[in-house]
Structures are given as structure tokens and as C-alpha cells.
Amino acid sequence: MIPLSMTGRSFLPAFNEGALTVVVVTSAGTSLEQSAAIALEVEKKLLAHPNIKKTARRTGRGDMDEHGKAASMTEIEAKLDMKDRKLGDVMAEVRKSMAGMPATITFGQPIGHRIDHMLSGTMANLAIKVYGPELYRLRITAEEIRGAIADVPGLADLSVEQQKDIPQVRIIPDRVQMARYDLTMSGVAEAMEAATAGMAVTRTLEGDRGFDVVVKFPDTARDSTGSIENVMIDTPTGVKIPLSTVARVVSAKGPNTITRENAQRKIVVQANVAGRDLRSVFEDVRSNIEQKVKLPEILRGVRRTV
User: Fold this and answer.
1) Helix, strand, coil % (nearest 5) of the chain?
2) Amino acid 193: pLDDT
3) In angstroms, rounded to a whole number, what is the distance separating the alpha carbons of residues 11 and 120?
4) What is the helix (H) or strand (E) element at residue 91, kind and residue range?
5) CATH fold for domain 17-108
6) For 189-200, how does the pLDDT look when each residue is reduced to its tens digit (9 = 90+)?
7) Whole-structure pTM value
8) Where are the chain's structural domains?
9) 123-164+256-306 adopts what CATH topology?
10) The dihedral of CA 14, 20, 26, 30: what is its sign?
């Protein structure tokens, strides 16, 4: 008999909701079409399992949505028919079937995922958040943490938040030239927003539905840096000048996303727990980090959330 003080502990008992939530994250910058194609392959593998009866898939979510998601993220809901089998065994088999897929795949359950998100801000049982001002240091440290805890028994779906450099077009203003034409930073920014992304100028009604009327330049006005440089800007005097007169347009690389918490930049290493209790896995993870990872002085600290 094992004393009660030596038994494992978890925040909540294991759920068996009769469904799985599978989150598929492809590389940053993956197109919607390619992301959907990879998610379709994941969905086919799920449906090939005898205990999964049907699935529903959503790739990406509108930028203006309260819970907007990038095109590289897919959520799949899979309905289970357990047939007297254990959930842990089914999830282990499904995880194994996903080996080699070109994406980070996390498994959970609908309610459990939402509880994890409320507790840690991620849809995983355990989240390690690293804070600091330098993105590249954060990425390096996150990878060191992943390597340090990868062999902890009971960890599953271990991954680092997708944060990579992607191609960008940067507009670098010339403040001296802008002053000559009596232009402000906000004025130039609004002109470029209207030209490239579009700007809602009014609304119209069709029947009982309302729609924004968006004004933007044709695609040819933003298909290259040269085209963007030639975008005409209105000055307060009524004279139109090309953007190149008051700014430089250059091709560069920058992070696909920057996440913050309490105004601090952060990156997250996350994982689920399978086959062990959450508390013991957490203690092993913390011990490994303390022993194997030396945080640079510039980083503000590490916080672990379970």
C-alpha cells in the first residue's frame, strides 16, 4: 500500500469527454492553402483510427476575431467511440500515427483545453514562459529548455511557440523630407494603410445586412517594393508626391509575431502530460531546468505555470 502523501497529484482529475481537440501548427508564414492541406492529412490519419468516428476542422480564424488565429493554425475536433478502451491508450496510438508530419501537433479535449488556456494562456497542461527584451535570446533559451526537459518521463506534445523571421517590407521615413512637405508620420501611415491594406470609409446596407465600404489601391500598387515606392501621397498643400520622396522601402526580415504578458515580451515552451500525474512531471521539469539551463542576465526570469 502506498501512503497518501506519496501519491501523485494533479490540479483536476482526468477527463473523458468523448472527443479530442487536435491543434496543428505549421511553420510561421505557411499559406492558408498549404496549412489546410497538411491539416487534411492529419484529419485523414485521425479518421483511420478505429475509435474516431468523425471530425470537424477549422484552419485559421479572422484577424479581427476576438480569438483570431494565423493561417498556420488548425483546430480539429474528433468524435470518439471508445468501445471499452482507455482514453490514454487511444491518445497514445493517435500520437504515434502522427510521427513525421511537418507540423507541431498537440492533443487534448475540448473542455480540458479551455481550462488549460484559462490557467496558463496555452492549450496545454504545462507552460514554461520565458520573459525578456531580446527576441533572439528568448528563442535560444526556449530551445535550450526544450532540450533540457525532452527526456522527462510523461511529457507529450512538447513544443516551442512558433516565432520565426519572415520576409517583410519596411517603410523607413525621412523626417527631414516629410517636414519639407508638411507631412506627419500618422498622415503617411494612414495613406499607406489605405493603399496596401485598405481602409473602411463608410458602411452600406443590403437588405438587413450592413457591409463596410473599403477603399484600397489595386494589387499592382503593392506587388513589389518599386510599386510601393511609387504610391502617390496627398500633401496638405494639395500636391501629390510619390512615397519614395519622403521614405525608403526595403525588403527585410522580422518576427512573424511578438507576444507579451504584463508588457513584457515572452516565448512559451508547452507540453501535455501522459501516463504520470501533473505534479511529479512539473517537479522533474523544474529540476531539469534549474540544473541544465543557465539564463542570460538580460532575461528577466522564468515563470512556470501549471
Assistant:
1) 35, 35, 35
2) 86
3) 12
4) helix 87-97
5) Alpha-Beta Plaits (3.30.70)
6) 888 888 888 888
7) 0.68
8) 17-108, 123-164+256-306, 166-255
9) Alpha-Beta Plaits (3.30.70)
10) negative
